[in-house]
């Protein structure tokens, strides 16, 4: 027998079994908390999708507002490469689908080696691929990443989050050495511009 002070032993007129009512209340509370957890995960996933859609839009605008040296054997494609893990999902493909830059069709290439990378004009490298960025320094490729050591390792554009906003810094001196001319429109958007 349970002690008389426990809620299950209290009799309320019109309610035949208080234990069943308490069980249902607990069950509703658990279901409510589970719903909140699912919504939270869904909102976070949506935020990440939005983040990479914005980064894809930045990459597209970099393509529009940066000039590259002319290539001898130009294929008519403007290749945007992804090296390492692809955080964009379908955001990059859907952002540039059917678009052209200076008469060249934008194309996404998923690279696994140096030969594939050399045909790219923009290369987005995953944070685990910083070593490759060092090897490409000086080539006419806009080297972009989102690790806080991209610039330090030879990259040109480094994405980062600040106050829940996507920001980027540009190493304009390194871009110039690679033969890239960055429009003042892009430089004005950058949080930091490095010329050294």
Outline the structure in words.
With 196 residues, the protein is an alpha/beta fold. The chain has a single domain, classed as Rossmann fold (3-Layer(aba) Sandwich). It has six helices and ten strands, in the order H-E-E-H-E-E-H-E-H-E-E-E-H-E-H-E. The strands form two sheets. The protein has an eight-stranded mixed β-sheet, with helices on both faces. It is elongated. Mean pLDDT is 80; it is low at 28-46.
Low-pLDDT windows of residues: 28-46
Q: Looking at the structure, what is the overall shape?
A: elongated
CATH overall fold name: Rossmann fold
* Order of neighbouring strands in the sheet with most strands: 3-4-2-5-6-7-8-10
- Return the CATH architecture: 3-Layer(aba) Sandwich
Q: Percentage of helical residues?
A: 25-40%
Task: Provide keyphrases for this structure.
196 residues, alpha/beta, Rossmann fold, eight-stranded mixed sheet, two-stranded antiparallel ribbon, 6 helices, elongated
Tell me briefly what this model is.
The chain contains 6 helices and 10 strands; from the N terminus they run H-E-E-H-E-E-H-E-H-E-E-E-H-E-H-E. With 196 residues, it is α/β, with parallel strands linked by helices. Strand 7 and strand 8 (165-171) form a beta hairpin.
Which helices and strands occur, and which strands form pairs?
Blueprint: H1 18-65, E1 66-67, E2 77-83, H2 91-96, E3 100-101, E4 104-111, H3 114-117, E5 122-125, H4 130-136, E6 142-145, E7 157-162, E8 165-171, H5 172-177, E9 181-182, H6 184-189, E10 192-194
Parallel strand pairs: 2-4, 2-5, 5-6, 6-7, 8-10
Antiparallel strand pairs: 1-9, 3-4, 7-8
